[in-house]
Design a protein that fits this description.
Blueprint (H helix, E strand, L loop, with lengths): L6 H4 L5 H13 L5 H13 L23 H11 L15 H4 L9
Helix pairs in contact: 2-3
Length: 108
């Protein structure tokens, strides 16, 4: 009987293009954990297919410490996502879809 592998060894890494995105992000951002880097990488990829679904997760960069890198993450993500739109300290997102321009078939 084989011993179970730790979860970290069982997790498959994302495809090579996403590895490149993660490498780019890590070049400019010091993430607090491996999972934070993976989450931001997947969120950047998600931004390219968001119009294919009905719901979309928000990316929350939370830290009470000034200078922790929240703004740097947003600056780097602006280079990776289509049509970046900053909603820092947005109180209510219910009118956000009305403010977004309609999706263009050529986006993506």
């Amino acid at each position: 009987m084989t011993e179970p592998q730790p979860a970290a060894k069982r997790i498959k890494r994302h495809p090579p293009p996403l590895d490149d995105v993660e490498t780019f992000l890590r070049r400019f951002v010091a993430f607090p954990s491996e999972s934070a880097a993976v989450a931001v990488t997947l969120w950047a990829a998600h931004a390219h297919v968001v119009h294919g679904g009905e719901n979309s997760p928000r990316l929350a960069l939370l830290s009470p410490e000034p200078g922790s890198g929240k703004t740097r993450v947003l600056e780097v993500l602006e280079l990776l996502v289509p049509r970046p739109l900053s909603t820092v300290q947005c109180k209510c997102g219910s009118d956000l879809p009305q403010r977004l321009p309609p999706a263009d078939a050529s986006d993506g």
